[in-house]
Amino acid sequence: MNALVPLLVALPLLGAAVTLVFGRNARVQVIVTVVTLALVSIIAATLLVVVDRTHPIAVMVGGWPAPFGIVLYVDRLAALLVLVSSIVLVAVLLFSIGQGAADGPEDTPISIFNPSYLILAAGIFNAFIAGDLFNLYVGFEILLVASYVLITLGSTESRIRTGAVYIVVSLVSSVLFLVAIALIYAALGTVNMAQIAERIGQIPPSTQLVLHLMLVVAFGIKAAVFPMSFWLPDSYPTAPAPVTAVFAGLLTKVGVYALIRTETQLFSVSSIDTLLMIVALATMLIGILGAVAQAELKRILSFTLVSHVGYMVFGLAIATPAAIGATVYYIVHHIIVQTTLFLAVGLVERRAGSTSILKVRGLMKAAPLIAVLYFVPAINLGGLPPFSGFIGKFALFQAAAQVATPLIWVLIVGGVLTSLLTLYALMRAWNLAFWREKEEAPEDHERIAHLGSAPAADEQQERRRIPPIMTFATGGMVAVTLALTVFAGPVFGLCERIGSTLLQPVRLAMLQTDGGQGDGS
What we know:
Elements: H1 7-21, H2 26-53, E1 57-60, E2 71-74, H3 76-103, H4 110-129, H5 133-151, H6 157-188, H7 193-199, H8 205-223, H9 232-235, H10 241-266, H11 273-292, H12 297-318, H13 321-352, H14 363-366, H15 368-381, H16 388-403, H17 406-435, H18 442-449, H19 468-486, H20 488-502, H21 508-511
Antiparallel strand pairs: 1-2
């Protein structure tokens, strides 16, 4: 099984090289990209079964032991996130194939999109299986370089402008991360995560706190944690629909994943739980209040994306096995549901020519299938039972109630309020864009006209054809969201096992030289 681990990164990079070679043959590019991501999905599923039944797998690349060599580490958490990410990447790829076939290369140049997309996938997978901080940094940089290209596809003025902001913020985060790595190496003599966890107690608490906070800030920017989330609502909505969907579903979760490793394994002896709780509450409330004030569907979803990152930080701050397990389940839920909603909004944009809820109306009658594809993940994200959003939030609140400090009760109330406001924002959009058929009375129009003052993404003026594969990809993701509810028992059981092992000391698995296997998390 060790030989399968490097393939998670090598296959997408090899696929990207092949697609570059066949840059003028769109069909070959598409086939290579689909096959590559499908193979990664199969490998990730195989690894998940193996590590869940036996033990984590650590691979010393080139046979060099830590801390001299690169360690690739696959435990339950890494395997699960690689599997979910690969499924999402395949679905969004199918959506983009339909869009490219309908629109031609002007909006989403296929010759550029496919290699960039595979490089993005390689960066995401590498970040999830990195066993040392520098390799995690490399994973971030790989995915960020690809995202710079993807977010500016089409080269419109708005995409270049928002892409520039995205690039600057990402570079600041990367520089801060790199400086933190250098300081950690100076203080501990290693960047291997397991060795950091073992040696961190040897340095003064004040030094631990500085290093800890530097990593949290760097990863918090990437995860769009308040107040470092200002860049996201303006950056994501202007990109092509497939790019927005995959960014919303995956990129912030890589930052959250890095925060999980930091809090549970690297700096478990240096607690900043109270600070994280305050940040989580602010992220939930500020994000959802921003969503309520928006008139454009992509911006509504972008602000809800920010607010729901707060739930993940909340669970991380509680720092109990039950809370970590609930957080992991919620991450899986949010990756799938948020991606699905952005794909559904992409269909709305093509069908109605706009994503402004002040302009779009009557889609329930004109496009009932799109209405369903939006409605199901919307109420799921809002946390209505029995969907996975409700299961994840209920488990999170239940884990928090077991700790039951005054601040945690405040966070539980804030989480419930955020869920209700999420449902309000998404259902208001449903009512105006899908259910409403006629122009409002003047007094009704005045009631929502203030939403138009919010900046909007580019508005497509003409309606465009929706190829069946785009609807199929979105419908497939809706089916996955429902499967996450139907099979909540086994999935949540897996997440509970992840939570119970993440808080255990990380030692043997990353340090072994006999094939890299151990009994850690």
